[in-house]
Fold this protein.
Amino acid sequence: MEVIVGKLAGFCPGVSNAVKKTLEIAKQEDNIYCYGELVHNKQVVDELEKNGVITVEDITVIPNNSTVIFRAHGVKESTYEIAKQKKLKVIDLTCGNVKIIHDKVKKARSNSFIIIIGDKEHPENIGTKDFAGVNSFVISSEDEIIDAYKKFEESNLNRVYVVSQTTFNMKKFEDLTNEIEENFCEVPVIIDNTICRATELRQEEVLELSKKVDEMIVIGGKNSANTQKLVQISEKNCKKVYHIQIKEDLKDVKFNANVKIGIVAGASTPKDIIMDVEKYIMEM
């Protein structure tokens, strides 16, 4: 059996910074609140809770004058105002790449209809859409372009600005932007590829690795968008792809001694979990 671990598997810089700073703050203060899961990884969130970080899904339940952490995915523009009204001490750990998108759409919203490519239910896009304002639309498939066009016509704007969720699939982004340009051919369309470079490189690595191995193991949270993209890419080249969160998820899997296995992980997966999985397989 040969096991190949992706060189880019594990925390991206934004997640690493968010987790490190949150743990530092937790050691200094009591009753630290995090608005939403800091990152989409159960093991990381559990570890933070052990250190006193309280995860809440509604900012209004946080007591006034408390300390609140804004997660790596970012929050709505309106959330900052609520925090101000409640006199919360805000520790803003929004990923730098997400902040850049917020600044871009906020600047463009006065003269552009904004299309956000990504999952409309993902917290990053919920926040970005709030910054983009009423004349914006989130799409994740070609079928939704028609709905976006109808919304565009209602806006009376004559310019379209397109951004992407930082963890979106690069190939799908390219396909969708081509369709958008065709459907909005009568107005200027500005395509801004805001997919995180770390995400792009990780997807490229997974694409190449999945072509060289017989089976793929993708480690990451079940609710992690970037991990799900790695699963989708892997499935294009491998018949057997295992999306797991920890090594115990493989307890019922038997690997053939002659297979070549690739191991990759999402941007919110700690290195020690990756090492545990690799060791577990090697000892089979």
